[in-house]
Amino acid sequence: MANKRTKAVVKTNKDAQPLIQPRHLRGRRGSLRDMPAMPLDILFEVFVYLEPMDLLNLARTSKPFKQLLVDRTAARFWRAARENIKGLPDCPSFLSEPAYANLCFDAHCHNCLKPNIQTVHWEVKARYCQPCMNEVYYCFVSPESIDAYGDNPLPDPDNLLGWDVPYSIRRHKLSVKAIMEAWRQTPAENRAEFRIEYTARRKQLLAFASDYEKWFEMRKKARSKEIEETRQDRFNSVEQRLRDLGYGEDLDYACRLYRSGIHPLLKIPRVVQARPLTTRGWKNMEAEVLGVMDGIRATRLQKERLAAITRRIKKLGEALVPWRRTVGPITPYTQELLLMPEVSSLIDAPTTSEPTEEDFSTLEKGFYNFSSQWRNRGCSKLSQMVRSKIALPSDVDVFSLAVSQYFYCVRCAKVRYGYDSDAATYPNILVHRCLWESRSFPAPEDTYEGIIARLEGGVPRTLDTLQSLADKARPVIEACDQDPARVTVDEMDALDIRLRCTGSCQEDGVYTVYTWCAAIEHTICGYECGTGQPSWEKVPLEYLADVATLEEIARLNREARRMDFIEHWFCSHCPRTFNFKWYSYAKRTRSSLVEHLRKEHDIDNPTELDMYYDPRQYDRVKPVYFIRKGLDLNPHRFLRAQTASRMGEVKWVDASWFDSLQA
Question: How far apart are CA 387 and CA 374, in angstroms?
Answer without folding.
Answer: 20
